[in-house]
Amino acid sequence: MLRNKCFRLLLLLLPAFSWAQQTTEYPNDYLSPEFHAGRRTAFREMMPNNSVGVFFASQVRVRNNDVDYQYAQSKNFYYFTGLEEPNALLLLFKQPVTILGATGTEFIFVQNRDPQRELWTGKILGAEGVKNKYKIANVFTNDKFTANTFDFNTVDSVLTAFRGEDIFSKYKRSPDPLSRMAGIVDSLIILHNKPIAARTTNVILTSLRGIKQPEEIALLEKAAKMSCEGHNDVIRAIKPGMTEYQAQAIMEYHFKKNGSEYPGYPSINGSSENACVLHYITNLRLMKDGDLLLSDCAAEYHGYTADVTRTIPVNGKFTPEQKIIYELVLEAQDSGIAACKPGNPYNGVDAAARRVINRGLIKLGIAANEQEARQYFPHGTSHHLGLDVHDMGATGPRPLQEGMFLTVEPGIYIPPGSKCDKKWWSIGVRIEDDILITKDGNRNLSASSPRTVAEIEKMAKQKSIFDK
Ligand code: GLY
Ligand code: MN
């Protein structure tokens, strides 16, 4: 009896324990000002002589009427500053220049404080606040940025992340301070006939953002961990009669519970034939006995996102056909992960996974040849992962390096009507994990969610926190 009471007490305490993670009033595990300063220095070291790097904050986007979309900072701007406010411009110079009486290589123009706006949407840092919080030396308010702010003739080229004919045109349409500053930069580029080195910018950013620093890895580990927690609870909770959006709700509950600001990309929850739509985000179907659910969902944490896919049987047990396809994808994924080693080519991961799937689909009589097999595995096996879910990083035959972080996500999708035996129809399987390239090989940051048939079926028998 006492044991029973203790057990009940323990059960009562367990949820409380799982909530108690944050001990400070607000999260305090953001990237440090030193991290951002280090990234700016690394960028400057790779800049050509007499160039200026121009990075704008993202614009606020209207959702409808006077409601905006939740603000999402430009990832390059965030990488270099940490600032999550709009209407800001960062200028990085290779050589020191003097701007508004201050000499240096880094200048940031930020939005002014505004009591009326702050009443509605909260504190704006202003120049002083940005200086104190992010330790950037030369901070000015954006109204100080005019065509005369610096002598444009001192630079030979402009490094910016945009490509295209009129790189700033997307800003020019709106009347906000950001658009005003973008318009000025654009006019100066045209007036002084300076080349825009978009390709160079991209090469530098790819090499920097493609190798994750320890502080970034710490955030990615957290994002991956909470993503796995969500996947595991969906494995436990799922049953026939549940909808795709209810599975999504269970998943995203765990992200939010752990402090994730939002999912890193729209959650994909496709059951039965919907699993064969690669980015199915409608998530409305009622799931039935015998279906598979492909759930490709992950949390973003302080700007960094995981990207995890699990494919699970709705009733807790794979059918023989589902198991065959699932285990083929799993074997392909294992081969892909085994190819994740420093020095191996990036595209060797896809080659390793695809080899397994091609061979398997031909052996099963689902595809007649490799070309036909491609229809059932129509996407690449990997992408870099970090600030963006499809992040910047070296691809193609270039070698993997320690600190790279990439997905390994082979899949097989057999929609109804496919040119194969009907018994395979409506099977869609993708398995996706987040692999950090280490000095000697790799580490799977999403390993805390099971991948094998036996482990998934075992977990499916456990109780979810949503089971009464
Ligand atoms: N998780 C979505 C994708 O990788 O495209
Ligand atoms: Mn992915």
Describe, in plain words, how this protein is organized in 3D.
The protein is of the alpha+beta class. The chain folds into two domains: 33-208, Creatinase/prolidase N-terminal domain (Creatine Amidinohydrolase, Chain A, domain 1), CATH 3.40.350; 211-460, Creatine Amidinohydrolase (Alpha-Beta Complex). The protein is 38% helix and 17% strand. The strands form six sheets. A five-stranded mixed β-sheet has the order 6-5-4-1-7, sandwiched between helices. It has a three-stranded antiparallel β-sheet with strand order 8-11-12. The protein has a three-stranded antiparallel β-sheet with strand order 9-10-13, with helices on one face. The structure holds glycine (GLY) and manganese (II) ion. Residues 307, 383, 407, 409, 432 line the site of manganese (II) ion.
Briefly, what CATH class of the largest domain? Alpha Beta
| Low-pLDDT ranges | 1-17, 163-167
- Please give the count of helices: 14
| Helix-strand makeup class | alpha+beta
**The CATH topology of the largest domain is what?**
Creatine Amidinohydrolase
- β-strand amount: 15-25%
Chain-averaged pLDDT = 93
Helix share, percent: 25-40%
Number of separate domains: 2
Q: Which descriptor suits the 3D outline?
A: globular
Please tell me the CATH architecture of the largest domain by its name. Answer: Alpha-Beta Complex
Biggest sheet, strands in spatial order?
6-5-4-1-7
Rg over CA atoms, rounded to whole Å, is 25 Å
Question: Care to count the β-strands?
Answer: 18
Bound molecules: glycine, manganese (II) ion
